[in-house]
Each structure stands twice: as C-alpha cells, then as structure tokens.
Specification:
The protein has helices at residues 8-18, 21-33, 38-42, 49-61, 80-116, and strands at 36-37, 65-70, 73-78. The chain is mainly alpha-helical. It has one domain: Winged helix-like DNA-binding domain superfamily/Winged helix DNA-binding domain (Arc Repressor Mutant, subunit A).
Length: 117
Amino acid sequence: MVNSVVNYGRLTDAFGALADPTRCAVVEVLARHGEMAVSDLATQHDMSLPGFLKHVRVLERAGLLMTEKVGRTRRCRLVTPRLAEAERWIREHRVFWEAQLASLDRFLQDSTSGEEK
C-alpha cells in the first residue's frame, strides 16, 4: 500500500510539527478563527513571544501555515493543502488497519467458537 504520489519528507515534516501540543493548538485556533496576528496567538500560551515564534517557524517550515507582515503586525494563516495531504494519508492507512483488525477479530471469533465445541 505505497502511494507513489505522497512526498514522505513533507509528511514527516508535517507530522513532526504537529507532534507538539503548542503547535497543534495553533493549528486548531487558526482552523476555527482563520487568519490571526502572531501576538494574539501567543497570548494563549504561557511562553515568551520569541519562544512562541519558534513554534510558528516550525509550522511554517513544515508548510502548515504562512505568515505575512501587514503594517506592524505579523499575521498567520493555515496552508490547507499540506493538512489535506496528511489527512488523506491517515485516512488511507486507517482503512487498511481497520480491515486488518476486522480480519483478526473474525479469526479470533472463529478460534473461540471452535474451542467451545
């Protein structure tokens, strides 16, 4: 089950970026509220602005968000194609593993039924 269209480097970057709770929270907030100022996002986390900006840069390098300077404010917005690519990969693998687990369940049920006879 190898999808030749998937760029595993990009997926690794995306999943690596999303492995951190702060970065996941940023993605969730941006998904709900749309574009926001970095300073507004930062106030929701108990860390310095420079520390928070490191998280923003990781998300940006992973292709999950973009920042743009508007006047004196730096604004963030999600980049949805990379999120869609990760979601598609998860969905394809979930279908595969659900089928495998269903097969295992049938095998175990048959094995248990055979013991009762």
